[in-house]
């Protein structure tokens, strides 16, 4: 069995007295770019101006955000699946139109 003095020496050898400056951006970079700026926008709720990202939104966009925000998880997933199906259908339609254009030679470049 090891002596208690030997155990204390081992534990003390594991201690680190290094001081880390957590304020340094080089040592502790932002893991997700933009998160600090986003979080800072919530620190001062007194300002009445909307966040930068909302400045370019129209009323219709804001209504859509409110509608999507009020959906349950299942309803939101259903909405996403609907959008995926729509994107797939548009892709099929585009493919048909490109094939049609190829057969009609409307996509050919004029010869010089």
Automatic annotation (TrEMBL):
A Pfam family hit: LIN52
GO BP term (any one): regulation of DNA-templated transcription
Membrane-traversing stretches: none
Gene Ontology cellular component terms for the protein in this record: DRM complex
Domain of life: Eukaryota
Family of the protein in this entry: Belongs to the lin-52 family.
The protein, known as: Protein lin-52 homolog
Organism annotation: Carassius auratus
Gene name per UniProt: LOC113060615
């Amino acid at each position: 069995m090891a002596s208690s003095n030997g155990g204390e020496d081992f534990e003390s050898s594991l201690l680190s007295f290094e001081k880390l400056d957590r304020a340094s951006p080089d040592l502790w970079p932002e893991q997700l770019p933009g998160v600090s700026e986003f979080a800072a926008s919530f620190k001062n709720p007194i300002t009445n101006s909307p966040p930068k990202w909302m400045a370019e939104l129209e009323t219709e966009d804001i209504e859509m955000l409110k509608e999507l925000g009020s959906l349950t998880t299942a309803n939101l997933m259903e909405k996403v699946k609907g959008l995926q199906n729509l994107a797939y259908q548009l892709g099929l339609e585009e493919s048909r139109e490109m094939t049609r254009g190829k057969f009609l030679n409307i996509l050919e470049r004029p010869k010089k």
